[in-house]
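Reopening: C-alpha cells for the beta-D-glucopyranose complex, inputs below.
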Amino acid sequence: MNIEKRIFGEIKGVKVYKYTLLNSNGISVSITNYGGIVTDLIVPDSGGNRRNIVLGFVNLSSYEEDREYLGALIGRFANRIKGGIFTLDGKDYRLACNENGKNHIHGGIKGFNRVLWEAEPAERPSGSDQGKITGSAKMPGNGGVSLKYLSKDGEEGYPGNLSVKVVYSLNDDNEFKIEYTAETDKPTPVNLTNHTYWNLSGRGSEKIYNHTVKLNCPQYLEIDEDLVPTGRIRPVENTPMDFMRSRRIGDGINKVVGGYDHCYILKPYTGKLTEIAEVQSPLSGVSMQVFTTMPGVQFYSGNFLHGAFDKHDAFCLETQFYPDCPNRPEFPDCILKPGQVYSHATIYRFQAK
Ligand code: BGC
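Re-run output (same inputs, fresh job):
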C-alpha cells in the first residue's frame, strides 16, 4: 500500500494536504483534509484503462466555493432537519436554515465539509499488506488516513463538544472503507456521511442513465415539496422507485418528480455491515458494491448539479440515519449521549467485469 502526501493549497496561512492511497491493483483514492473531501478515485476499467469515477476539482479554491458538497464529509447532521429546529430533553435548538431559508441541510453554513481536519496516518486496515510509502512526505506504513475534528459546543447551533474521527482506508481487496466514530459531552444528533458523486463510466464521460442500480431496500421515505420526509414509509414495489432488482437509472428517473433524491430503507437492518447497493456502468464495466452499518441511504441522482458539472452527471449514495430524525421519534434514533460512541462504517468495493 502506497500513501502519498502533497500540499493541496493553503487556507489563512495553514497548509492543506491531499493524501493519495494506492493499492496493488492500481486503484487510487485521494482525500484532502479540507472538508475530508474525496477528490479523485481512479480504478482500472474492464479494458485496463484508468478512469476517475468521482466528480472533483483540481484546485482547493474550487472546493471552497463549491455549494454541491462534492466528495465531502458531511456533519454534524447529514441531510435535512425541517425548519432547522429540534427539541432535545425539553430544550429547543435552532439551526441555520441554509437551504432556501427553509430547512437545515448538511450541518449548516460551516458544516464539517468546510473545516480543516487534523490528518495523520491511520492504523493499517486488517488483512492489508505491509505498506511502502512514497511521495513528497514519507509516512510510516499505513493503509489509510485518519481525520480528526472537534466540533465545539454550540457550533452551528448543535449542543455538546463532539469529538469526531474519520478513517479513510483502501485495501488490496479493492475496498475503500470509511469509518466514522464520535463522542460527545452532551446529548446531540449525529448523522455523518460522505457526499461523493459517482460516475462509474468516468468523470465527464456520459450521464448516469445507463448505469444499473440495485438497492436492497424494499421501502423509502416519502418526501414533501421541500424534500423533507413526511413521516410516511412507502413500499417501492411496482413504482419507479423500485431498485430491488438491478435496473437502469434512466428507466425511471423521468417518472419521479425532480429525479431520485430519497432516503431508501435497508431491510433487514441488523446494524452490522450489510450490502445496501450495487451499481454498474456497462460502458466501463466498473461496478461498485456499497456495504454499510447504517439503516438508510440517500439515493440522489445529481438533479441540482449545475456549473462545473451538470444535472445527472453523477449520483450519490449517502449512507445515513433517516433525514429529519431528530423530529421523528418513530425513526431510528440518531441522538448520541455522553458515554456512548457513534460508530458507522461504509465500504465501497470495486470490480471491473
Ligand atoms: C440532497 C440533495 C441536495 C444535495 C446537495 C443531497 O444529499 O439529497 O437534495 O441537493 O445533497 O446539497
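Confidence is low (pLDDT under 50) at residues 125-142. Residues 68-69, 79, 105-106, 227, 261, 298, 300, 304, 316, 318 surround beta-D-glucopyranose (CB under 6 Å). Marking as resolved unless the reporter disagrees.
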